[in-house]
Amino acid sequence: MTGIVIIAAGESRRLGQPKQLVLWKSIPLIRHVARVALEASLGPVTVVLGAVDEECRSALQGLPVRVVRNPDWASGMGGSIAMGVTSLMESKLSDIIVMLCDQPLISADHLRNLEEESRRTGYGIVATRSAGVNGPPVLFPSSFFVQLRTLRGNQGARSLLHAAPLLSWVPCPAAACDLDTPGDLLELRQREAV
């Protein structure tokens, strides 16, 4: 079984508004991403919150996800990943997918493809490849859980990707579309209108 951790703890300084609450297809982005994770039907889903905790909890109401708050969210993504992975340790998981709340074009099919690639190759980490770069969502097998639980600061899990002796990837051009700036939001709105 594969758990999914959605990182949604940041304050979205560059965007100027909480990206978690930006409407995408008429619902808050955090709810959309959580629904995609649930639709993949891989295992339990945890959402890690921080800066806009209460509003995000409201947006997630009624969804069968575990919500945890990282009180030290401002120190960076590493601690949020560690908290999310730790929250899933009571489940008997073979893998965990770490995904971000600001990639609205990621599909449930893509999440399932990450798991299928892991089973097919037997490799350790399976990343998403977009524009020649490996990044999130990323599947980590249980052999990386201890390392994920000790992450801190802004580094996130990128160091694990770079150090992985065996790394596979699944192409997903849609992963390049993330929401960090007002320009990104405008581009996503234009895509949504098409």
UniProtKB/TrEMBL annotation:
CDD domains named in the record: GT_2_like_f
Pfam families, A to Z: NTP_transf_3
MobA-like NTP transferase domain span: 5-163
Gene Ontology molecular function, alphabetical: nucleotidyltransferase activity
UniProt protein name: Nucleotidyltransferase family protein
Source organism (scientific name): Luteolibacter yonseiensis
Lineage: Bacteria, Pseudomonadati, Verrucomicrobiota, Verrucomicrobiia, Verrucomicrobiales
